[in-house]
Design brief:
The complex is a heterodimer. Chain A is mainly alpha-helical. In chain A, helix 9 packs antiparallel against helix 13. Classes of the chains: A mainly alpha, B mainly alpha.
Chain lengths: 352, 137
């Protein structure tokens, strides 16, 4: 298939700006581009975690939340960062040291790594391998490993239960997620992220002079709904926050973590939510496409819309019981996702 | 190839940023060693025994199912990639579609078998089952 558009990726552009070329340019450009992308995400997580989450939950429960420091309480982010990082790190007795320490490192690592292949608009796109879509799923799955390490390493019964529940949820909902993504691949015929986005820019139909693009959320809304629900379970948010379940098992796998480890786990979870939103946006909502505003702004709006959705669900939907949770995954989502894939293939086959 | 250099660079940054945060925290935070607070949390009680115990992990069968379906998703992707272009190049619909439908069908039969055998059910402990029957009587 001929590429619809040849885009300059971020590392090449940075290397071009610095006047570097060859392998040195690739390495320097890659490192600077990666640093830029990681910081974009850190800034968004900083806003989402200590500030937006409180404000959104407060709005749902008719409270005001943080408003003392800075405009709208925004400088709370700075004070909270200092506060959390300057907490004493308490390492409990008999923890399994390498595993206890590596777990919190793996969670943000996996979520950040997934963003390598996400096109964020305005040329902010670190890498565009042919297997981009599968790479994003693979990278985001590494987080499960970190969660097992935390659950086992903590030497705490709540942590162990939380870790096991996290694995149960990840294996139950990962297949619906990936199979639903495969039903999009049936349309695109490629796994390359830039191609997936480019194909969605083509017009679907024109209503009263307004051209509606071929976003796969419009082409196959059923798959979009399935994907968002499975995504919600993958990032472990209500009604699927069984792994943490504060009213049942304290805090699940993160019970024994304090100070910087706590920050790292939360950082990883928030970046994971953004990665889930980014995958949904790229696969179903045209990636960074949108009218008037520049692409990066649209991309940010889309991932924040997904973030708002997770927080809305957190405030509005009660948690499923753990056995119901697995039932929904194995008996509901899995069957529906395979039905979706088979029907998509049949319909595409009959129309094409 | 340059793509994987950039991805590797992001991998380095994704390790470096957490390590940097840990370094900053190590400078900022106090250290007040004390025996009591190092106990693991068990709702304020003194912890009983270790957490490295044998427990019913409930989803052993489900984990086996997951292996089957996860391998299946890997095999679905190559088919999904070529499906549409194969049709556009004039391949017969049944030749492209039917094998994959049969493949999925075989696995769905496996899922139905596991479902009917209760492999995806939440296993109740004998104690909970006994209490339930006693209550019903």
């Amino acid at each position: 298939m001929v590429p619809l558009q040849s885009q300059v990726l971020l590392p090449e552009r940075i290397a071009g700006l610095l006047g570097l070329s060859g392998t040195v340019g690739q390495i320097v450009g890659g490192l600077l581009g990666a640093f830029l992308i990681a910081n974009l995400l850190l800034v968004q997580t900083a806003i989402a975690g200590p500030w937006a989450k409180r404000k959104i939950t407060a709005a749902f429960t008719d409270r005001i939340a943080v408003n003392r420091i800075g405009p709208f309480g925004l400088l709370t982010i700075v004070t909270d960062a200092v506060r959390l990082l300057s907490k004493e790190l308490i390492i409990p007795e008999d923890v399994d040291r390498p595993s206890y320490d590596l777990g919190p490192l793996l969670v943000p690592f996996s979520a950040l790594l997934g963003f390598a292949v996400i096109p964020m608009g305005n040329g902010i796109h670190l890498a565009d391998p042919e297997t981009g879509l599968v790479f994003a799923f693979a990278a985001s799955s590494i987080a499960s490993l970190g969660i097992v390490m935390m659950g086992y390493g903590s030497n705490n019964k709540y942590s162990l239960l939380g870790g096991l529940r996290a694995i149960a949820s990840n294996i139950a909902y990962e297949i619906p997620l990936v199979v639903t993504a495969a039903s999009v691949v049936v349309f695109t015929g490629t796994l390359q992220m830039s191609e997936v986005v480019a194909q969605q820019a083509e017009p679907l139909l024109t209503v009263a002079g307004v051209t509606i693009p071929q976003w796969f959320a419009f082409v196959n809304p059923f798959a979009f709904v399935l994907f968002v629900i499975a995504n919600l379970a993958e990032v472990g948010r209500n009604p699927f926050d069984v792994p943490e379940a504060p009213t049942e098992i304290v805090a699940g796998f993160q019970t024994e973590y304090s100070s910087v480890y706590f920050v790292l786990i939360y950082l990883g979870e928030f970046i994971h939510i953004f990665l889930g939103g980014a995958l949904a946006a790229t696969l179903f909502l045209g990636g960074p496409a949108g009218p008037i505003l520049p692409g990066f702004i649209w991309f940010t709006i889309k991932i924040w819309a997904f973030y708002l959705f997770t927080q809305w669900a957190r405030s509005a939907i009660p948690r499923l019981r753990v056995d119901q949770f697995l039932d929904v995954g194995w008996k509901g989502m899995l069957v529906l996702s395979f039905a979706n894939l088979a029907l998509t293939a049949i319909i595409v086959g009959v129309i094409a | 190839m340059s793509e994987w250099i950039a991805i590797g660079a992001l991998g380095l940054v994704a390790v470096g940023i957490p390590l940097g945060m840990m370094a900053v925290s190590a400078i900022l935070r106090p250290s007040v060693p004390e025996q009591g607070k190092r106990a693991t949390y068990e709702s304020g009680e003194v912890p009983t025994g270790t957490a490295r115990v044998q427990i019913n992990i409930q989803y052993y069968m489900v984990a086996l199912l997951f292996l089957v379906f996860d391998v299946e998703t890997v095999l679905i992707f190559p088919w999904a990639v070529i499906y549409r272009s194969a049709l556009e190049q004039g391949a017969d619909l049944t030749a492209v579609l039917l094998p994959m439908l049969i493949f999925i069908g075989v696995l769905v039969v496996g899922l139905v078998w596991a479902w009917r055998n209760g492999a995806v059910e939440w296993v109740k402990s004998p104690l909970a089952n006994r209490q339930k029957t006693e209550r019903n009587v």
